[in-house]
């Protein structure tokens, strides 16, 4: 089954953005933590800060003019509003306002008074907006009024001082002219024409200077108007509790998204199904839904219609029409690492789905370390001689004598070759008996499904790949790493097989994973205990015990412990050829 896999760069940008946003939503704990921190910060700011009040007044600035009603007269002539704003917040204004407030009983220093003042200029206007913030409405109003009045007084005083200085300059220029005129008038005498001309010029110059002095005295020195008087505010200024909570929630959400993005960048797990397909080099066969009813038993098929059963049927149909699988009709089901519960459920349900399609299905449990499939199937697995599977001698070894007929209500039946703990797992998996069982997939209408341990935990799956060829990886995308998938692809390709696809199952949660790990550890200890009993002395077991009956190397109840020749780790049961009955030498 080969499908073109487009790289991430070839995807459209909206799809990539949606995919990245879904990946960020995977880390809900970080998002919730960020929002909670933001809300707490907003609540702390709202509850810990003191209420402040702001009183605002507006002053319209104007320049001194002789006739404000004359044609072409402009109020903004010679005004630099930026400089006026700096004057409004200067120490001179603050000192004058503090002196005025002290006369009214409000003693405050100039610098402290200016800390609560904010002067702004609305665009395209000659207006200065005085905003004063204080802890009480009364102080805010009185200090805003004092500062605005102080600014107008300072500006008027500076204008009047400028006029007076200019008038004094004109008078200083006129004084020698007047003295010269008086001297000419006293001298009199000849050359009357020259004297008259000089006197006339002096009179004209003196008259011009007098005119300028008179014009300066007639100037309107009004510095501006208090268009909006400061009033006592009735409500505190600043953002209230709802606004701060909303702002904190937004900031917290942004913080959570940032933390999620950082976590996503350094997360080695598979971040999306597209990345899983690219890392594994195989298509996605299906995604199992999360159903509560799935915990009632291993087989979802046969318990009535459900989403889980339909997904297994869809995967089986997809495999049935896959040219790579139809050529060999053999499938190896395995997980990347960890427990094998999801792979066991997938193998059993796929066997039931193929049996429902009318195929003769043989399910081989190649997990010889912690076999549990027969126990999970429960009453559905009945010990019986298969009707169609190849027969062999019953020698007590695996896989001989380990077959059972599994009935699936409403679907049919399939043959189960249950796993059994053995002393030498690699030798058992590569034996001729296993080869004969896997060769049964060559029969018309037959399907062989092999359940192997996790491929990255043990080499058991690798030992079977060359005879099964097609591999299906069952994994949880939140638990498997990208490096693990790439390694699985390389291992299977190097062993002569191919990955047919991946089957995703939902995460079972942290508690379920711990419980499965404990159960798997208990099964592994039980398997080692049974192997130890088979290797132990006659005094450690009684004749006819179940452990002795299930042993692949055991003989009669009075046989001594392991016989070794050469290699002390090689037992008699392992040295006996596969297919030889247990009672034969």
Summarize the helices and strands and which ones pair or pack.
Layout: H1 13-24, H2 28-48, E1 53-61, H3 81-88, H4 91-103, H5 110-115, E2 117-120, E3 127-134, H6 137-187, H7 192-217, E4 224-228, H8 241-265, H9 273-280, E5 284-287, H10 307-320, H11 323-328, E6 330-334, H12 341-356, E7 360-365, H13 373-377, E8 381-382, E9 403-408, E10 412-417, H14 425-429, H15 432-438, E11 446-451, H16 460-468, E12 470-475, H17 482-494, E13 498-504, H18 510-535, H19 546-550, H20 572-575
Parallel strand pairs: 5-13, 6-11, 6-12, 7-10, 7-11, 12-13
Antiparallel strand pairs: 1-3, 1-4, 2-3, 8-9, 9-10
Biased composition (Basic residues): 507-516, 526-536
Organism: Streptomyces nitrosporeus
Keywords: Membrane, Transmembrane, Transmembrane helix
Describe this structure in words.
Residues 537-546 have a biased composition (Low complexity). Keywords: Membrane, Transmembrane, Transmembrane helix. InterPro entries: Bact_polysacc_biosynth/exp, P-loop_NTPase. The chain has 585 residues and is α/β, with parallel strands linked by helices. The chain has three domains: 20-49 and 246-265, no CATH class; 53-67 and 75-228, Bacterial polysaccharide co-polymerase-like, CATH 3.30.1890; 273-531, P-loop containing nucleotide triphosphate hydrolases (Rossmann fold, 3-Layer(aba) Sandwich). Helices cover 48% and strands 13% of the residues. It is built from 20 helices and 13 strands. Strands 5-13-12-6-11-7-10-9-8 form a nine-stranded mixed β-sheet, sandwiched between helices. Strands 2-3-1-4 form a four-stranded antiparallel β-sheet. Strand 9 (403-408) and strand 10 (412-417) form a beta hairpin. Helix 2 (28-48) runs antiparallel to helix 8. The longest helix has 51 residues, at 137-187. The radius of gyration is 49 Å and the shape is rod-shaped.
């Amino acid at each position: 089954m080969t499908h073109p896999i487009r790289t991430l760069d070839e995807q459209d940008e909206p799809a990539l953005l949606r995919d990245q946003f879904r990946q960020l939503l995977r880390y809900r704990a970080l998002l919730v933590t960020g929002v909670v921190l933001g809300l707490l910060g907003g609540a702390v700011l709202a509850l810990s800060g003191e209420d402040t009040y702001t009183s605002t007044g507006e002053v319209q600035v104007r320049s001194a003019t002789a006739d404000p009603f004359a044609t072409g007269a402009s109020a903004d002539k010679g005004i630099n509003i930026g400089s006026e704003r700096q004057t409004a917040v200067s120490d001179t204004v603050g000192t004058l306002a503090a002196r005025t407030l002290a006369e009214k009983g409000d003693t405050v220093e100039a610098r402290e008074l200016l800390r609560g003042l904010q002067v702004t200029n609305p665009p395209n206007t000659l207006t200065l907006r005085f905003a004063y913030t204080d802890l009480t409405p009364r102080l805010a109003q009185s200090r805003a009024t004092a500062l605005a009045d102080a600014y107008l007084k300072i500006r008027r005083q500076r204008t009047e001082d400028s006029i007076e200085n200019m008038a004094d300059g004109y008078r200083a220029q006129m004084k020698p002219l007047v003295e010269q005129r008086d001297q000419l008038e006293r001298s009199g005498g000849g050359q009357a024409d020259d004297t008259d001309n000089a006197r006339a010029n002096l009179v004209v110059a003196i008259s011009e200077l007098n005119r300028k002095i008179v014009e300066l005295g007639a100037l309107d020195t009004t510095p501006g108007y208090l268009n909006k008087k400061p009033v006592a505010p009735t409500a505190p200024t600043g953002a209230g509790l709802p606004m701060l909570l909303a702002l904190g929630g937004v900031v917290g959400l942004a913080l959570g998204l940032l933390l999620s993005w950082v976590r996503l960048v350094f997360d080695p797990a598979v971040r999306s199904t597209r990345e899983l397909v690219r890392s594994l080099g195989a298509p996605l066969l299906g995604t199992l839904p999360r159903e509560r009813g799935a915990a009632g038993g291993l087989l979802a098929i046969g318990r009535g219609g459900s989403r889980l059963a339909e997904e297994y049927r869809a995967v089986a149909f997809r495999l049935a029409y896959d040219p790579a699988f139809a050529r060999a009709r053999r499938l190896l089901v395995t997980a990347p690492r960890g427990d094998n519960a999801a792979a066991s459920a997938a193998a059993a349900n796929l066997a039931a789905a193929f049996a429902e399609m009318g195929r003769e299905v043989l399910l081989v449990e190649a997990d010889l370390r912690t076999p549990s499939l027969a126990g999970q199937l429960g009453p559905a697995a009945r010990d019986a001689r298969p009707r169609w599977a190849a027969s062999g001698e019953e020698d007590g070894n695996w896989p001989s004598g380990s077959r059972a007929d599994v009935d699936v209500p409403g679907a049919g039946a399939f043959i189960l070759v249950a796993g059994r703990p053995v002393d030498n797992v690699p030798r058992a998996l590569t034996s001729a008996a296993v080869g004969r069982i896997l060769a049964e997939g060559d029969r018309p209408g037959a399907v062989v499904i092999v359940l192997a341990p996790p491929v990255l935990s043990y080499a058991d799956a690798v030992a079977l790949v060359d005879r099964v060829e097609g591999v299906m990886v069952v994994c949880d995308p939140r638990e498997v790493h990208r490096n693990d998938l790439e390694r699985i692809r390389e291992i299977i390709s190097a062993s002569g097989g191919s990955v047919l696809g991946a089957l995703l199952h939902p995460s079972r949660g942290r508690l379920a994973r711990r419980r499965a790990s404990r159960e798997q550890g208990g099964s592994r200890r039980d398997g080692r205990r049974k192997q130890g009993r088979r290797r132990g002395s006659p005094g450690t077991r009684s004749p006819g015990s179940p452990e002795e009956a299930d042993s692949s190397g055991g003989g009669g109840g009075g046989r001594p412990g392991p016989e070794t020749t050469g290699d002390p780790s090689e037992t008699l049961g392992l040295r006996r050829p596969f297919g030889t009955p247990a009672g034969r030498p």
